[in-house]
Structures are given as C-alpha cells and as structure tokens.
Amino acid sequence: MNNPALWKHLFRMRALAIRKDISTNSLVAKFVALFPEHYDDSDATFNASSRWRAAIRRKLVGHMPETPPKVQLILAPTPLHRLKNLSRETHLDLWIKRDDLTGFAFGGNKGRKLEYLIADALNQNAEVVTTCGSSQSNFIRQLGAACSKHGLVCAAAAMHLPYDNAAGKPTGKHIGNSNGNVLLDEILGIDMHIHPDDDWEVLYTHAEVLAKEYETKGKRVYRVPVGGSSPLGAYAFYQAAQELTAGPFDWIVTASSSGSTQTGLAYAFDGTPTKIQGIACDPEPEIANDFAEIGYGLAQLLNHPRQIPANEYRLDFNSVGAGYGMASEEGREATELMARQEGIFLDPVYTAKALAALLRLAKTKQIEGRVLFWHTGGTPAIFADNQPNAIAG
Ligand SMILES: Cc1ncc(COP(=O)(O)O)c(C=O)c1O
To answer: Which of 3, 150, 181, 207 shows a CA-CA span of 20 to 30 A to 369?
Structure first.
C-alpha cells in the first residue's frame, strides 16, 4: 500500500470517512479489494479520472461496515494539552489527554467504552447488566452510572483483591476496601456481591452465577466482560484517537489492564509512525494474548486490513509493583510530581504506575520526542480508606 498518490486522494476522503467512523487504513484496503483496476502498485499512481473518483468514493463508503450504535455519556473531546513543567523535567515534548475529565461519573476511560456497550445492551432489550471487578473498580462505578441513566439494573460480582494464581496474592499497600469507588457504588445503588479474594477465573464464575440468577428470575441479562474490554470497548478507543488534533505523536503512553484502551489505540495508529506503549498494571505477561483476541474482533468490526498479533503490543511490566490493586512507591512519587508540577491528580492503581513508567522510559531514552500521556482517570480511588502510606507516604 505504498502509493503516495492514492494516500493523498484517500486523505481528501478522510473527512467523509471520519463522519462515517471509518479509518483511512480501512478505506485503502477496501479500495484495493473493490477497485484493483484503479490501483497500480508498480508505478505508484492512483489511476482514475475525477468523474470516476466521485463514483468510487460513493461506492466505497457504501461498502464500509456500519458504525456501531452509541449512546451519549461523556463530554468529548476531552481536553488535550501540553505539560509545560513536566516537559522540561523529562526533556520530552509531553502532552496529556484528559480522560479523567470526561464529565461523566467522576471521569475515566470506561465512559467511552460504555457509550457503545450500553447501546448494544439496549438494542438487545436487556433489563440487567452484569459484570465483575475489584471492589474499587473504576469500571463498575461508571457502568453503574451508565445503567442508572438508561434505566438498567447494574449487578456486579467483586473481590477486594482479585489476583492471578500463578503470580500469587500480592502483599503490600492495598488501596483500601471502603470509600472511593465503593462509596460511589453504594450511592448508585449497584447490586454488588463481594466475594472472598481469589483468582480472577473464580471471579468470572461468580459473575456468571449472578447473571444466571437474574435470568432464572425472568430478566434479560447483558454480560459485560471485566473492564468493558470487548471489541466494542476497543472500538471506542479506536474512535477516541480521532480526538488527537495536536498530533502526530511519537509515542502514546497509557495504563493497560483489561486491554481495550491499548487495543483500540493500536488499531487506530496501525501502519503509522506513532507507537503505543502500554504500562501493565497486572503482572501477567499473557495479557497480550487477551489484547490480540479483543483486537481480532475489532479488526472484523472495522474491516481492518490486518490483525495485530500479540507480540506487537508494546507492554512494560516493570512498574506493576507488588501487583494489581496495590500502590507502589514509584507510583506515589510520580503522583506527587504530577500534582506538584502540573496540579493534576493521578490514581494509585493505574495512572500513577503509568506515569512512573513513562518517567523511567524517558530517563533511559527509550521514549523520546513528542509524547502523549493518556490520563485514563481512576481518581476516586485516591479517597479509598485503609490505605496507610498508599498515597501520602
Ligand atoms: C483508571 C484506569 N486506567 C486504566 C485502565 C486500564 O484500561 P483497560 O482495562 O482498557 O486496559 C483502567 C481499567 O480498569 C482504569 O480504571
């Protein structure tokens, strides 16, 4: 697809494509499949008269997959701005995408995913939405709020500290089991079922039992995977990339856990020089396989020309600390730096670790140039109780 003339023409079609939520990559792939006679790879020319071009455009866009329906929850685009002081500190041209400021239910990356997931639930005439997560889950909080807004019951299976059996249950500064998101979940009236701490697989089973209980009562249930990470969740982040009007960026750095944030961004920038660096907040290296799976579904949704394999997801595991849900010393330092240099708050489980890793990668020159830190929210967890030393020291 190395045809500059074709890219130039398709770039002009981009405004149209964006209105229809179509990526330029998908446009090119579709174009080549539909009109090989107008595409000459050998002499790199775009081979059609202007009359034909108009006809091609109409036909091409007509062939693109339908945009998934969405409900409106967040106030997008979220702010995008430069971090002047931290740029100086890190020797980067450092920017931030403020998904902590979505304007919905205390912010966070999940609002984007929920716009598509809730629309899907409503299309399927669901009455109850079930999911699972930790008791301080930012996703459950935002799901609860989205359900409230759309007349759905939200039910969740949770553990204070779900963990991966292979990695073992972490010990250290747990962020706390009350207040923070727990308090907000109570206010929202989520049907919350707390189970003893155990492996994630056990938690998924609890969520399925909960869904079945509602079905036994005759309710139509929509099951949402942990963190809203389905192809639809990833689609939301694929779309979010269109908000980066200040690009291009050399790097985008984001906290990564259930994966649809990083997967969506990876597809949005596939084939471009922008690199997506996920900072893992879970210790399990095999999460990249989950990301690939989510991505295969997204590729289908988008009609994307290729599927991104697991080994292409850039994931840094060096800032997980004691484990998922545990605050880290490095994260505390990063939180203080961001607050004291820029007046912006991070959360202890995700964004603090992501910034800590960004600072480390900048120091060792593994990331350079124009860098975007995607703030994925989570700030209510700052106010979780029982966290001596978790944030303050
Ligand atoms: C604040 C915050 N940041 C980042 C993430 C990770 O996003 P994802 O689950 O899409 O990988 C989460 C997920 O729970 C989160 O709550």
So the answer is: 3
| Beta-sheet strand order (sheet of 221-223) | 191-195, 153-159, 128-134, 221-223
276 phi and psi, to 5 degrees? -105, 120
Residue 198 tokens read as 């155990």
Residue 228, sorted as left (phi over 0), alpha (psi -120 to 50) or beta, turns out to be: left
Give CATH for domain 80-106+230-383. Answer: 3.40.50.1100
For domain 110-228, the CATH architecture is 3-Layer(aba) Sandwich (3.40)
DSSP H or E run through 157: strand 153-159
Task: Report how far ligand 1's centroid is from the alpha carbon of 219 (Å).
Answer: 29
Give me ligand 1 centre to Cα 275, in Å: 19
CA distance 135 to 124: 28
pLDDT computed for residue 18 by the predictor: 47
Q: What is the mean pLDDT of residues 295-312?
A: 96
Q: What is the mean pLDDT of the chain?
A: 88
Q: How many residues does the chain have?
A: 393
Report pLDDT for 167. 86
Please list the residues that pair with 314 across neighbouring strands: 277
129/138 Cα distance (integer angstroms): 16
pLDDT of residue 23: 53
Q: Where are the domains of the chain?
A: 4-62, 80-106+230-383, 110-228
